[in-house]
Amino acid sequence: MNTSASGIRPVLPILIGASVLLTLAMGLRQSLGIFMAPLTQDIGITVSQFTMAVAVQNLAWGLFQAPAGAWAVRVGFRPLMIGGAVLYVLGLGLLATANGMLNVVLGAGVAIGASMALAGNAITMAVSARAVSPALRSTVLGIVSAAGSLGALISAPIGQGLAQAFGWRAGIYGFVVLALLMIPAALFAGRVDRIPLPANESRNDVKASAVAGAALRHAPFVVMSLAYFVCGMQLVFLTTHLPAYLTICGMDPMLSAQALGVIGGFNILGSLFFGWAGGRWNKLALLGLIYTLRSCVLAWYFMSPPSPTSTLVFAALMGFLWLGVGPLVAGWIAETFGLRWQAMVGGLAFVVHQIGSTLGAFGGGIVYDMLGSYDMAWKFGVSLGLVAGLTQILFSMRDSPPPKLASVGA
Q1: Structure pTM?
Q2: Looking at domain 14-193+208-396, what is its CATH homologous superfamily?
Q3: pLDDT tens-digit readout, 298-308
């Protein structure tokens, strides 16, 4: 394992591959909301039906994430990531040919959700953490997480431009072309399988079930996971419903793509900052700060009618507070549970995150269909966010030793 900044050069192909994989996986799925209005009108489904597919995606992602992390211990990262990349392309292809609800759910829902578990942030964060030394880990995780922001910055304007010029199907086919780049990226990132684990983690007689049990009994992990629920709810509500909200308010359709692009751009700064900060301050306290500030920004934006300026300022603030959670969560889990089981333990937390994402996507659609407004949805998200953020900050002050995995099973 590398012990200095100069030691990063041999693992650059791995880090670049992981970054490109995460960039495309995150960016494409975050931009699917720009197709919601034309797609639903064209094939005759409702907003809540479309958001049900997004909810299925998030739920499938969460449910498959922990098993994917356990499989990585058995078969290695490369087969998982290549399989995830291929599945992503197939999912977008199903969505582009949809003429009814079935292909929307199978493509945008099941296929892309499962592919995210195999090639998304939990796996790419685990790959990146394994490639570098503990001294560089938090900063490198921040850099790779920042790469996950570039996808929305690139894909949202491309998708919106193609959709406006040639129709929503052309926009999604454009996404298919971008997704094909995930396959070679997975090949490069998969080289991490050649890097041995640290000597103190080389034992392979600890069962996955024992590690999972230790995590679920570890109070800081439980609190972090519950706060992670709110994180998923807030973010997926925005990526799914912000384009529709701006349309309702009479804004230019291109503004939603611009906002998603700004979120992606400021995501880079936020990920880099929180990756750096996580190497210097309490990672759990920083997570609580992010959730609290996000909730305040959400409340400010939705309390008054949007304008192009306020929307882009809002997007910049939310972008800075967006994927900064990635290096903090991944770094804390690697420190607490070790590199071997990082992807699986992260997957356990991510199940809770994705239940929140499901609520944010599908629940937001139901609220809008029932009330004709998003007011109740954003107020609920802000309230839970403040509770989660403040609770996380308070709990981070407690001194809790990490679980002893060597003694929890064999």
Answers
A1: 0.72
A2: MFS general substrate transporter like domains (1.20.1250.20)
A3: 888 888 887 88
Report pLDDT digits (tens) over 151-189.
Answer: 766 787 788 788 888 888 888 899 999 999 999 999 998
- Domains of the chain, residue spans: 14-193+208-396
**Residue 353 half-sphere exposure, CB side, CA atoms within 13 Å?**
26
Question: Which single residue is written with the structure tokens 């920004």?
Answer: 297
* Token pair for 407: 């003694």
Rg of the chain taking only CA atoms, in angstroms: 20
Take residue 246 and report the two structure tokens written for it: 């701006």
CA 214 to chain centre: 25
How many CA atoms, within 13 angstroms, populate the side-chain half-sphere of residue 132?
26
Tokens, residue 285: 């306290």
Query: Could you tell me how far CA 302 lies from the centroid of its own chain?
Result: 23
pLDDT in tens, 204-236: 556 767 777 777 787 788 888 888 888 877 777
Q: What are phi and psi of 195, to 5 degrees?
A: -90, 125
CA distances in angstroms from 393 to 129, 348, 387, listed in the order given: 25, 21, 10
